[in-house]
Every structure is written in structure tokens, then in C-alpha cells.
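User: I'm putting together a small comparison set for a docking exercise, and I want a reference complex before I start. The sequence is below, and the ligand is nickel (II) ion. Could you produce the 3D structure with the ligand included, as C-alpha cells?
Assistant: Of course. I'll restate your input first, then give the C-alpha cells for the complex.
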Amino acid sequence: MLIDTHTHLYLKQFDADRKEVIGRAEEAGIKKFFLPNIDSKSIDSMLKMEVDFPGKCFAMMGLHPCSVKEDYKKELQIVEAWLQKRKFCAIGEIGIDLYWDKTFFEQQKKSFLTQVEWAIDLKLPIVIHCRESIDITIELLQPYKNKVKGIFHCFGGTVEQAKKIMELDFLMGIGGVLTYKKAKLNEVVKEIPLEYLVLETDSPYLAPVPYRGKRNESGYVKNIAERLAEAKNLSIDEVAKATTHNALNLFK
Ligand code: NI
């Protein structure tokens, strides 16, 4: 059994064939799907997936750094209200994104830390988006060491950064980037013990080879698992067993 720890299957890219996408994933061995929220606009369709696919899809709640704009306080209030209303498997996805736009960097930091503190209060793990911001994110988490756990999603960092993440006792989400020829991630994962890794697609984005550039879907976790097994010289069963255990252990 494999798990997609990070998929946006609720987005409109899947409106036409969501059921088939889940069916194909299940056939490939992917049995559970963890859904990170983006902002107030994505909540309804995300929660609908939990209703449509009970025991398979699990929602997170959080405000994505790319959705942190002028109105971020209002967005955070909505997240907070939902966290009080019902149980979620994690707070996510939250973090810092310095790739697209640095205008709201200060607000992104505030939003991130506010949500980290909510996670600590609610004893929930966090799922972190850290595009072009791994070092700053690691630094921001230092005061919270041993108080909160979670995943650095779409990890594409160096061995040094991986070590710092392991010191924080966080996991790293490995996705399609692992299959890209130019990615150094192939070498980096050799230095990361399996206990710190989970698998993800981030679908519909970042499809692995041989689907690169096309819509990503959860079934492709299998391709990522195969590539990881190859890189670490392990069997796919070993990779599946460990990454599934890590994911279930974190999300409870
Ligand atoms: Ni994402």
C-alpha cells in the first residue's frame, strides 16, 4: 500500500474525471489521499472529497503562502473557525514562498507562525510549503523544536538542509522532482534514512517522468516509489512499507 501525502485532487483540473483518477490510483496501490488546503475558496470542494470518498481522502486546513495577500487576516480567521469547528488531519499547507512573489514576505511569516502555534495547541502536524525558502523556514521553526512535527513538502534541498530538517524531527515529502534528470535530489535521498521520507504527487502539478509537463495524478506515486527504491537500492516493498508507516504515524 502506498499513500499520496499531498494532492490537490479537489481542484477543477479533476472535475471531469475525479472518480476515475482515484480508481486508477487505487489500482496502482495508492489507498489514501491527504488533501492540503489552499485558501477559503478551496475549502468546499476539498471537504466534498471527504464525503465522496470516505476513509480514503483526508482534509487538512490552512492558508497557503501564495494566498497570503492584503486580506490574509480575514483568511486566517476562516481557517481558525474551521479548526474550532471540526477535526482535521493536519494544518497545511502553510509556509513561505519566495519564488513567485516577495511582496508579502512579512505577512507570510506572520501567517506561518500563527498557524504553527495553532498546530501546537491542537496537537496537529503541519505540512510545509517552502519554495525557495527552505533555510528561512528551518530557522523560523527553531523555537518550536520538539513541539510540532510535520512534513517539508516537495523537498528539493541539499544534504545539509535535510540534516537540519531531521534535527527538527520533520519528514520530507518526495515527489515528481525525484524523476527529473537534472535534479540533484537523486543523490540527496541516498543520504536520508527512509524513516524521514514520505511520498507525494502535489497533483495536478509536478508530474513525474514519463508524464512530465502533463497533469499529475495520485496514481503516479507508484512511479516516484519505484524511482526512490532505485536510488536507495531497496525493493519497492521496503519503500512502500516505510513511507506508508511514516505517513500514517504522522497523520494518525
Ligand atoms: Ni501543494
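The chain has one domain: 2-251. Residues 6, 8, 36, 93, 202 surround nickel (II) ion (CB under 6 Å).
User: Thanks, that's exactly what I needed.
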